[in-house]
Amino acid sequence: QAPLAEFGGGLVQPGGSLRVSCAASASIFSIATMGWYRQAPGKERELVASISRGGNTDYAPSVKGRFTISRDNAKYTVYLQMNSLTPEDTAVYFCNAKFGITFWWGQGTQVTVSS
What CA–CA distance (Å, rounded) separates 56 from 29? Predict the structure, then answer.
């Protein structure tokens, strides 16, 4: 079983909303800072948002005020609620877990914003 598994990508119209989820193994989720990265075609992977075990959050300037990251410690799941989506948000979104110098990655889920 993969340590991280993303769900919820898809096609959404500009201005719409979408929520992606990432289910993690309990052993990883309990120790890691969780995050979402994205990679658009021809671009480098970039951090979108992160949330610590204590709930402290950090956002990329391009998504601040539109995206919200949250974690459910009982379900070992991290969510990314994306509102007011634009075509520039189109990318593969990757779940990430970080503990010290160790990283885990999900396989990614495609989010496409298009009319």
Answer: 15
Phi, psi for 32 (deg, rounded to 5): -100, 150
Relative to beta strand 109-113, strand 10-12 is: parallel
Contact present, 56 and 74 (Cβ < 8 Å) = no
* DSSP string computed for 71-100: EETTTTEEEEEE-S--GGG-EEEEEEEEET
pLDDT, tens digit, 9 for 90 and up, residues 6-65: 999 999 999 999 999 999 999 999 999 999 999 999 999 999 999 999 999 999 999 999
Positive/negative CA dihedral, 13, 10, 7, 67: negative
